[in-house]
Each structure stands twice: as structure tokens, then as C-alpha cells.
Write the C-alpha cells for this entry.
Amino acid sequence: MANRKKVAADARKEANKTKFGAVLNSNPTSPRKTRLVVDLIRGKKVEEALTILKFHKKESAGKLEKLLKSAINNWEQKTGLKPEDHALFVTHVMVEAGPVVKRFLPAPQGRAYRLRKRSNQVKLEVGTKEPVTAA
């Protein structure tokens, strides 16, 4: 039993060595608004995605641009190669709901309305079409 778990864990570790990405936790915008921006960059080249995020008017775009630059830097540090020499793509982007802060707003006739301040978590991975080995 323990051997099977060790083999699965080793396989997972090997698979993670070829994944290069970054995570943004507790982003204080709703997941729905962030997904609108994420859908624009999914599957694009890194240079094109950075341009889209730089000139997009949504607030999430600035935070996603910083996240994408972090993922590119992680790829550069792990492989030891320059991203300009290889065609980097945004391979995987996922937006999930984060913690929700719950508050009350005063309402007429002594009532109270529920206010939910939503947040999200973004996981972004970059990669190339062909596998790259570390230098």
C-alpha cells in the first residue's frame, strides 16, 4: 500500500517539474469579473497576452499582468533559458472562488440586507509547445 502511494507521489513530482506558473490568492474582485479578462488571454502567446492585459480597462487586468510576469520569471529561473528564444504560451488559467466576506447593510423598516464581498484565486501556467529541459 505504501509503495503504491510513493510511486504516485514520485510521478506527481516529476510532472510538476515541467509545470511553470504562479498563483494569485485572495484577489478582491469577484470571480465572474476576473473570468472575463482571463478568457481573453487563455492560449495566447505571452507577449500578446501581456499587451492585452496592459491596455485592458478592467481592474483585474493589472493584477493578472503582474501574475503573468511572475509566471514568466518562474519559467526563466527554473529552466535557465530566455523566454524570447522560446515561444511561450499561456497554457492553463483557472479562476476559482476565494473567501467571501459577509457584511450587513441597513435596510428600511429595521431590516438588514446581506452583502457578500467576493474574492477569487487565479492559477496561471506558462509553457512551450515542445518540452524544454533545464539548462
